[in-house]
Amino acid sequence: WALTMVAVWKIGLLAALYFIQGLPFGFQTKTLPVYLRQNGLSLSSISFLGLLSLPWAIKLLWAPFVDTYYIASIGKRRTWILAATGALTIFTTLASIAEGNIPAVLCCLFGMNLAASIQDVSVDALAIELLADDETGYGNSAQVIGFKMGMLTSGGVLASFAATGDTVDWATMFLYMASLCAIVWALMLMVAEPEGNAPKQHASQPGVTAQASWLDVLQQLKELLQQPATRSLVMFLATYKIGEVMADSMFKPFLVDLGYTAGQIGLWSGSIGMVCSILGSLLGGWLASNWQLERVMYWSMVARLVPQAGRFFLSVSPASESMIVAIMATESITGGAVTTVVFTMMMLHAHDAISASHYTMLATVEVMGKSSASIFSGVVAHTLGYPAFFSITTMVSHSKSTAEDVLMKCFVVALRSLNFDDTCTITISTQATAVVDSSVTLLSWLD
């Protein structure tokens, strides 16, 4: 179970690469609104900042080119990683020079996101080809934690370092970000791309051949999507987080309605939640690397029902601060573990010949599934009320298994004891059917 020094080096390299990917996103979501407001921008203008992260949403468009075009003497993956990391360093430096010119800074930030998204595609592919199967779980922990630490660094730490009294020297902060990117670029420059690794053979992916152009990559993706196993995986990735994301999006408004302050909620979700999420990612990576993957997924899915059901019981019974913190901490741990395990599974089943495109396609489906889940959560919560809403999200969060059946039967008994009639219970159960079926198919495929 102990990692070799070579494995530690590989995982550390990946963590550093994922770390600098999180820098633009953390700055955009945490620090940029403050910067723009201090420079006099209106709230309506600030609300459009999400458009700057558009490259992350459409990164599948350039994944086939990452799989196809490269400089042989540099390496298939190093070509794109070095170019993207260099571009990230340049755009961050330009933002420092342009500080005070808001349009120019925003253009630089868009360039940072574009470079980071291209780097993400190539680093994911490098991880697939670099890591042994029993190292992939640790690699995904490095991915999740590295990105979060990058967000935390640019979203607050660097601003405090660049602050003089109550004023932040934004130009200096951008230079700090550029320096971190340059260090990782230099580190990658010294690393040779692994050679001679035979592609992994996946029984569920017959007939996929080496690509000659980006059109061949698209054709191979089409062939993969025609396979029942891939369709089941895509369905699972699009739905496995629906209940969890819906509950997350409404839990903070629920706490506000209970009378808790923004400061209390921010402390619980920001500090405690972040630490527990990182612990969950570490736990998920360790379990995925040392235990049978389908069993780890099975039990992590079971474990995440505990905080989901806890939210429901908070909505129908008196809540204490300790109970709220315990539910938030448990949700962050189980959510971090589930995400890491699922991304490990995606990485292990990405085809080496088109690993950048295949993995990016799966990751895009996963992100789109999570993003769409929260759109109607407010309408459902407002229409049905918090108890019915959190009962639905709990039911949707479960997948078919003996242990979860027991938990679900207990939950249905609780619903009835709280005056939810049989018709309501059946309706709630029906909401989960599609997710349950896709989860069963996927677990059967993994077995």
Spell out the key features of this protein.
447 residues; mainly alpha; two-stranded antiparallel sheet; 2 strands; 1% strand; disordered C terminus
Fold and architecture overview:
This protein has helices at 5-38, 43-46, 54-57, 63-68, 76-97, 102-130, 136-161, 170-189, 214-225, 228-239, 242-257, 262-290, 293-303, 305-316, 321-348, 355-373, 377-384, 386-396, 402-417, 422-431, 433-446, and strands at residues 163-164, 167-168. The chain is mainly alpha-helical and 447 residues long. A two-stranded antiparallel sheet has the order 1-2. The radius of gyration is 23 Å and the shape is globular. The two termini are 23 Å apart.
Element layout with pairings:
Blueprint: H1 5-38, H2 43-46, H3 54-57, H4 63-68, H5 76-97, H6 102-130, H7 136-161, E1 163-164, E2 167-168, H8 170-189, H9 214-225, H10 228-239, H11 242-257, H12 262-290, H13 293-303, H14 305-316, H15 321-348, H16 355-373, H17 377-384, H18 386-396, H19 402-417, H20 422-431, H21 433-446
Antiparallel strand pairs: 1-2
- SSE order: HHHHHHHEEHHHHHHHHHHHHHH
Instruction: Point out poorly predicted stretches.
Output: 196-211, 400-447
Query: How would you describe the shape?
Result: globular
Count every helix, treating DSSP H or I runs of 4 or more residues as helices.
21
Number of strands: 2
Helix content: over 70%
- Overall mean pLDDT: 80
Please give the radius of gyration in angstroms.
Answer: 23 Å
Strand order of the main beta sheet, please? 1-2
Portion in beta strands: under 5%
For this structure, the quaternary state is single chain
